[in-house]
Amino acid sequence: MNILITGACGYIGSHFTNLLSASGERNLFAIDNLSTGFKNSIPGSVELLCCDLENTGNIEDFIRGNKIDAIFHFAGKIIVPESVRNPFLYYTSNTFNTCNLASIAAKSGVKYFIFSSTAAVYSQPPDNRPIDENFQTNPLSPYGASKLMSERIISDIFANKNVKYANLRYFNVAGAALDGSNGQRSPNSAHLIKMCCKAALDKNFILDVFGNDFNTKDGTGVRDYIHVEDLANAHLKIFDYLKNGGVSQVFNVGYGRGHSVFDVIKSVERVSGTKLKYQIKPRRSGDAAEIVSSNKKITSLTSWRPKFDNLDIITKTALDWEKKLR
Ligand code: UD1
Q1: How many CA atoms lie within 13 A of 171 on its CB side?
Q2: Burial bucket for residue 274 (CB in 10 Å: 0-12, 13-18, 19+)
Q3: CB-ligand 1 contact for 142 (6 Å cutoff)
Q4: Smallest CA separation from ligand 1 atom 3, residue
Q5: Is the CB of 82 under 6 A from ligand 1?
Q6: What are the structural domains, with CATH classification, of the chain?
């Protein structure tokens, strides 16, 4: 198979590309504009086209020229507050570019299309029950909306074509490679685990805890943190499912259980041996109390089983990686 990975040099894309390469896949092709990714995050044997997805002529030539069979589409913008400030950027970079890529795929002999979507497509859960794929969608941000529209476009474009697709809704992706070879390198990331690592490594940094009055076990927000290597592996298992005759559809990718902000702080304290300084701040606008996946679908339809469903492994690998970056 000739496999194309867009956004291959980014955080999740590079973990997946390395996994594919380690699994023995040889004909790997990548597209990345290197705006947030790093060329040296992926093996040198992967043929990289450094290009924006907007350049549809180049993209089509690359896909046709390399007789691509499968596309894993990771490229996109992922910062929620940025999407609120600049929705146009998100509707072009995420929705418009995905539309173009899917339409090129549909006419270029591509057989499989696997898309990086997000739990941000869901509406706020009224209670704290795990969210399954049928839960109502109603994104709070342009980021979530840009991904939900992309999902719809993918399913419409491939409906009558011979292309199998899967839209993967990621929950809170975190952690780094266990051997310390790869991790989150984007300086703009402000996710909780990254901020906790910062507080562990920088004695002057005070972590903001956004709200301690949610209806959760300890009042702080609860999320389903999934290790990036388990997430990468989920793509392989869903690919196998599709190749074995599986049906095109949406999948949640999460562990199915949540950890609070205080759980994460305690975990980083354990793995770092440092007490974190934090202060309670007002709730961040749009934050839900508890967002946890139901992963029944992926675990019943595919052979995916989490290997690193342990908060301390997630925080320890993230912390080791942050130390290495410094
Ligand atoms: C974010 C994205 C979401 C994406 C997900 C996984 C937002 C609003 N959402 O989810 O679209 O799918 O990552 O990549 O950005 N918190 C603090 N202090 C901090 C940072 C976070 O208390 O400095 C709290 C938040 O209020 C929340 C939890 O930690 O309760 C997790 O926050 P964060 O890591 O930013 O991820 P989400 O917002 O859940």
Answers
A1: 27
A2: middle
A3: no
A4: 120
A5: no
A6: 3-174+225-253 (3.40.50.720), 192-223+256-294+308-321 (3.90.25.10)
192 lines ligand 1 (CB under 6 A): yes
Query: Ligand 1 pocket: which of 79, 147, 191, 218 to mutate (most atoms <8 Å of CB)?
Result: 191
Helix ranges (DSSP H) in the chain: 11-22, 56-65, 80-85, 87-90, 97-107, 142-158, 192-201, 228-243, 261-272, 296-301, 311-325
174 CA to middle of ligand 1, Å?
Answer: 11
- Please give the Cα distance from 291 to 188 (Å, whole number): 23
The CB of 222 under 6 Å from ligand 1? The reply is no
CA–centroid distance, residue 192 to ligand 1 (Å)? 6
Residue 298 is which amino acid? I
Task: Give me the tens of pLDDT residue by residue for the chain, a chain 326 residues long.
Answer: 999 999 999 999 999 999 999 999 999 999 999 999 999 999 999 999 999 999 999 999 999 999 999 999 999 999 988 999 999 999 999 999 999 999 999 999 999 999 999 999 998 888 889 999 999 999 989 999 999 999 999 999 999 899 999 999 999 999 999 999 999 998 788 999 999 999 999 999 999 999 999 999 999 999 999 999 999 999 999 999 999 999 999 999 999 999 999 999 999 999 999 999 999 999 998 788 999 999 999 999 999 999 999 999 999 999 999 999 98
Closest-CA residue to 217 (of 275, 289, 111, 306): 289
Give the C-alpha separation, 266 to 286, whole Å.
25
290, two tokens: 């508890």
CA of 253 to the centre of ligand 1 (A): 16
